[in-house]
C-alpha cells in the first residue's frame, strides 16, 4: 500500500470517529418496532403525522432537529402514518393527527395534541428519557 493510500485510509478512519454523535433518524412506525423498543426500556416518541396537516408540518422541524441533536441520541422517534395506520392509531388511542406520545419503555410519560411550540415538544421528549 502506498504512503498516500495509508494516509488517506488513516484520515478516513479518523473522520469516522470524530463525526458528531447524532440521535437516531426518524423511523416509520410499526407495532413491532414500538413493542421491541418498549421491551428494551428505550425512550420513544411517537409522531402521528399526516402530510396534509399544517400542524404536523409545523411540528416536523422540531422533531427533525431532535433527531439530529446529540442530546436526544437515545430517543427513538417513530412516525406513524396517520392516514394509513388506523389499527395502530386505535391501539394507541390517537384520535387526531399531530398527536405526539412519549414513552419511557412501556410507560407513557406524556402526550401532546396540536402543540407546535418547540420547547413543549422537547420537554415531552425529555419526559421519556431517564
From TrEMBL:
Residues 20-130 form the Thioredoxin domain. Residues 1-23 form the signal peptide. Gene3D superfamilies: Glutaredoxin. This is Thioredoxin family protein. Keywords: Signal. It comes from the Bacteria. InterPro entries: Thioredoxin-like_sf, Thioredoxin_domain. SUPFAM superfamilies: Thioredoxin-like (SSF52833).
Amino acid at each position: 500500500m502506498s504512503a498516500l493510500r495509508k494516509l488517506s485510509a488513516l484520515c478516513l478512519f479518523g473522520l469516522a470517529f470524530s463525526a458528531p454523535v447524532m440521535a437516531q433518524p426518524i423511523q416509520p412506525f410499526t407495532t413491532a418496532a414500538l413493542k421491541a423498543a418498549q421491551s428494551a426500556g428505550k425512550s420513544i416518541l411517537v409522531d402521528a403525522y399526516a402530510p396534509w396537516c399544517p400542524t404536523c408540518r409545523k411540528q416536523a422541524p422540531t422533531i427533525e432537529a431532535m433527531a439530529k441533536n446529540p442530546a436526544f441520541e437515545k430517543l427513538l422517534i417513530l412516525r406513524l402514518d396517520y392516514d394509513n395506520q388506523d389499527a395502530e392509531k386505535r391501539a394507541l388511542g390517537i384520535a387526531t393527527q399531530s398527536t405526539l406520545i412519549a414513552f419511557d419503555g412501556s410507560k407513557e410519560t406524556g402526550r401532546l395534541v396540536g402543540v407546535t411550540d418547540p420547547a413543549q415538544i422537547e420537554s415531552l421528549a425529555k419526559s421519556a428519557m431517564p
